[in-house]
Structure formats: structure tokens, C-alpha cells
Amino acid sequence: MLDALRNSAKSWVAKVLLGLLVLSFGVWGISGTIFQGVGGTVVAVGETKVSPIEYRLAYDRQVAIVSRQFGTRLTTEQARALGLENQVLSQVVSNAALDEQSRRMNLGLSKDRLATIIADDPAFRGINGRFDRATFANLLRNVGMTEEDFIVSQESAAIRSQIVEAIADGYEAPATMMKALYQFENETRTFDYIVLNRDLAGEIAEPSAQDLTDYFEANKTSYRAPEYRKIAYVQLKASDISDPAAVADAAVRADYEARLDRYTTPEQRTIEQLNFADEGAARAALGKLASGMTFDDLAAEEGKTSADIRIGTFEKSTVPDPAIADAAFAIPAQGGTSDVVNGSFGPVILRVTEIRPEATSSFDEVKDAIRNELAIVEADTILLDVHDAYEDARAGGDTLEEAARKQKLTPITIDAVDRTARTPDGSILSDLPESQTLLAQVFDTEISVESAPINIGSEGFLWFEVLDILPARDRTFDEVKDRVAEDWKNEQIALALGTRAGELKTRIDNGEELSAIAAELGLTTDTKYDVRRNYEDAVLGPSAISVAFAGPEGLVAIADAVGGTSKILMKVNQVTTADVPTSGTQVENLSTAVSRRMGDDLLGQMVALMQSEFGVSYNPTAAELALSAGH
Fold first, then answer.
1. Does residue 19 share a domain with residue 151?
2. Fewer CB near the last or first residue (10 Å), C or N of the chain?
């Protein structure tokens, strides 16, 4: 929102649309007094009020923006799942607070200045580069605003930006802070480390029944069964309604003959080449081949291995060097060699070691694939008809299964699935269509509620229905006894490994070398050089990197390896503090980012104080009515 407010006197798009895109005030919440009962007003901040129409317009625009980002119109349930209602509310309240402050400060904007702002906006210019009223009217119509409403919002946004710019713009982070941040981000460390695997933990005794019971009781919440839902769904894609048997043999044959090149594989040749310093050397080598020397012996004489001379298998059109392509594909037989060829990188002699002739798949080999493709193309033409017929059947009272069967679709029932696509036995439903979107909507829908279909890309639809809800519950010990035993043992191994690592760390603290301890344990010492805080490593992971930066040079530390089943024992050998340059892109970018962030923080605190001082009233009933009226 801050960027939109800063630029609100420069672009109508920022004032009308982009102000809804960046919703940083959402993290501040709505401070002040929140209460119901403010009549037809959705939000009131002091004497500044936001009407249901204004609130709905802000919401609709935000939904439109996010819908364009996803490439599909969001349903009410999807918008709610994304938190758009709360985001728009926070944005509306923040803008209202700034408007109330500008009202109290008697800030204004002259008509001439407002006219200049509108006239100078590039969005409203015609082909002659000047303000064009028709363009202006068309753009406003597209976003659903009258000219009067736009002028009012333009004026409010321009006045609001005066407060934003006064508070947040022009702030410059102190030089001392910039130096500290630069050195923090660019400090590097070199350290040695060994990986202590779980086999160094030693033998772990089997747990008693009491051990497992105690462990279960202490960690009962981690074994809690999540909420599961029983669902039915039906998918409609062209492949679901295609009928290959209905495709005539003549149509299959005609498609095959029309696209015969699609079923033809061009000739391919495996090519080797010997490079020479100049044409004289190449001619001399060619003479040796003519005298009976083999190409392999010639390559050996030139000090080349088979891997050195092989350049690959190619179709003629894919050979990187056209001169080589012509010569290689002119060799009459497999095993033959070329004359001296002037390639892109000097003279060469070629050998073709394998020739795969051009081949065309027969009609019988590909007819089934062609028939299936033609059936899917035909199904695409009736996809929307099937969609409409299904919807009509549901509107007529058919169940999901009945409507699906009428359209020859296959309904699928899943007895229990949680939000992560897991079933009660722990397996993952990897074949669930549109899994993330489907489950998000499933867990935001009540039993037997008919929901709008989910778009499957641009090629189909997915309908679902919640049949039952199995609430979250505590599992009994007997249900998870095997998991408890495994978790208990893993914990004991981790404790024992941690103890062992601590003992080894003490030895290094007392003067022993990490490399000597590694040799004693049969381990290898590895070294990481000049690592920064943002370094990523598949073994060490973020935790170990963080530990490596947790102390001075000479630090000996223990960290968890990735996965948590091993420990990292490390020693920091060198800490290098970066010299801070006086100029440069990195310094400028860091300074800009930090200054902007601090300016944002100041603005955030100021808006929160405004909300607290002026008081914020919110009428959820009016907001709900405004949204329901708009959809």
C-alpha cells in the first residue's frame, strides 16, 4: 500500500487499483475501538466513513486483480481462503485513517492541480500524446467508476499522499547502521566439520511398557488425529468423455497420411572427428589412412582417446557445424571416413561409426494413438455441452453421482482425507486432481453444499461435495503404539548422539584437533570456505550455518544436520569481516531498501496511532451485506 500511496499523485492506476495490491497494513491490524452498530457505514475512522458501496468496490477490484494473477475468476470461497476480505478491510481502514488526518489538517488540492494530474496521466492519452476524454471515459468504465467518483478518489489519494510523503519519504538510514548491516550480510567464515551419524550413539536398550506410556502421554498432541473429510468428486476433461471407437477408420487413415512426417524419423549418424593444427597436417594424416592405417591407430598417434574424438549422434539438421554435416552425411557407408573438411574450428577428418536409416512408423503401429488423439479433439468440442448438462441435472435435484452417471462420468468417493492429502493410514493421495485447490475448498465447505466447479487449467472442470466430517480427536495409545516406539527410540538415539558430540566438543575445547578425532572415529574432515550466512548446503542446512556464525573465530560448536538424524561437530578457523565500500550498486541497493523499510515502519506506527486516536468502528453486518449484494 505504501508504494501506491507514495505514487498516488502520479498514476490513476496506482490510486484506483495498485493501492489494493500491496496490503502491508494488514500486518498492523485494526487498532482502536471496534464495535458494531454504525448504521449504513462499513468502516468509520473519526468522522471519515466508508460506505457499503465503496467497501464493495474495493473488494471487487481486489478480487479482479487476484483473479487475473491466477488466470481464473475466484469464487467467494477461494477469495475467503486467500484472506482477501481481511486484507481489503485493513487497507480500507488504513486509507480512512489517512483521510481523517488530512481532513483534520485541512489539507486540500486545487482544481487546477487536480486537472493537471489527470491530464498528465499517460493512461489517458490518445494517439496524439495528449489527454483524450474518450480514453479517459473508457478506462473508468472498465474499472466500474463514474467520472465523479474517480475525481473524488483521485483528490483523496493525492491529498493522502502528502501525509505519506511527509512521514516516510526522504528517510535515510544512518551510516553506522548501514556499515553494520553490510558487514553482517557479507561476513564470511571458513570452518572444518565432521558428520556424526546415529551409529555413534551406541546401543539403545529396548523401552519398557512404562517408558512408552510415559512418552505417549508427554507427547499426546503430536499423535492427535487431524480432521478428516469424506468427499466425492467428479472430473470432466476431454479424455474423460472421449470415445475412440466412434472415430471412423477413414478419418484415422486420412490423419496419418496428412501428417506422415510426424511419424518419420530422419536418418541419424554417429560421428567422430580428428582435429588438426593446419591443413598440411590433416593432408598428411589422410595419406596415412590411404596407406592402410586405421582411424583408431591414427587417433592414438595423435594422442586422442575414443571419448576425445566422438562428437555424438545427430540428424543432419542438428549437426552444429553445417560443413561437417554435409561431409558426414556424404560418407557412403558405416565405418567410412571423409576427406579433409574445413570445419568451423579448423581442418578435420571425420568417421561415421553408425548409421541409422530414415524410418517411418507404419499405419498399424500408430493408428491407436491417432484414434485416441482424434477422439480427444472431438470431445473438446462438446466439453461445455457436457458441463452444462451436468449442471442442469444438479439443478434438477440429481446427486453428484446421478448427474455424473448421466454424462458417463465416473464419480470418485474418498472415505477420509485431511488437509495435506493424507488418509488415516498415513498414505498420500498423489492422484487427487487439483489437489491443493480441491482440499482448500473441501475444508472450507459444509456437508452437502453444492460448490462451483474448480477449473482444471483451461481444459476441464472438477466438481466435489463434502459427504461427512470426521472431527479431529486424540488417538489412543494402542492406535499409535508402533509410532510411539519408533519416536521414543529416535529420541534416545538423538540424546545419546548429543551426549557423544558434547564429549568430543570438550576434547577439542581442551586442545585436541578435530582432524585427529575424525581419524579416530574413521570419519572424514570436510571444510567449507568463505561461507556467508545465506549459504545453502544439502548436508549442513540452515541450522548448522546459523550455528557457525554464532560465535567468534575458534568457535567449536554442535549443530543438527539436515533431517535431524545426525550431528555436525565444527570448528570455525577464520572469520573475515568485509570492507565497506563507499559506493557501488550493492551499497546503494542496501541503503535504498533499508531506508524504505524504516520509512515504512514509521508510517505504520503513525497509522496505528491515528487509528487509536481517532477510533475505528467496523460494522461486520454492513460489510457482509455489501459483499453479498455485490455477488
1. yes
2. C
Instruction: State residue 30's pLDDT score.
Output: 40
How far is 480 from 478, CA to CA, in rounded Å? 6
349: domain CATH number?
A: 3.10.50.40
**Taking all residues of the chain, what is their mean pLDDT, rounded to a whole number?**
84
Tens digits of residue pLDDT in 492-540: 999 999 999 999 999 999 999 999 999 999 999 999 999 999 998 888 8
Question: Where in the sequence is the domain holding 341, given as residue range(s)?
Answer: 267-357
Q: What is the pLDDT of residue 196?
A: 94
Residue 416 contacts residue 439 (beta carbons within 8 Å): no
| pLDDT, tens digit, 9 for 90 and up, residues 588-615 | 777 777 777 777 777 778 888 888 888 9
Rounded CA separation 274/285 (Å): 10
Q: Does residue 39 share a domain with residue 165?
A: yes
Residues 302 and 414 grouped into a single domain: no
Q: Give the end-to-end CA distance of the chain in Å, rounded to a whole number.
A: 25
Alpha helices in 51-109 (DSSP H): 52-70, 76-81, 84-104
Do 167 and 68 share a structural domain?
yes
Give the contacts of 139 (CB within 8 A, at least 6 positions apart). Answer: 12, 123, 124
